[in-house]
Fold this sequence. Notes:
The protein is built from six helices and five strands. It is of the alpha/beta class. A five-stranded parallel sheet has the order 2-1-3-4-5, sandwiched between helices. The longest helix has 12 residues, at 29-40.
Amino acid sequence: MGGCIPTWEETSSIEKMRTKNILVIDDSRALRQIVVHTLDTLGYGVVEAVDGKDGWQKAQAQLFDLVFTDQNMPQFDGIWLIKALRNSQNYGSVPIFMLTKETGEEMKALGREAGATGWIVKPFDPQRLVELVQKAIGDANE
């Protein structure tokens, strides 16, 4: 880099190298590990949250490019969390996916009303998860 302040070209080049970050909120440690392993190996930065409250706190401390949340968790449930994120300053257009065992149409309708971008039913195919992430936010360093 040229001097103390990077040029526009240098800043643009640095931004292109930035890893996209994903927040995974689920009270199941095993599920979080599957998601982390699947996405981390592709170069995404993945942060785990153990419940809705932990997820809310982490989403306020750092901006994420995509969020996965379970519905049924201690503290705050997924619907509450999606509504709160959508009403916050930074998450109006960030993709937020429900990652849950819930399959009922009524629950899906509540998710859509809250602002969920999509719905993934557990158990899921890790390759499907990768395809969904790449479609929503592109490759890890795009």
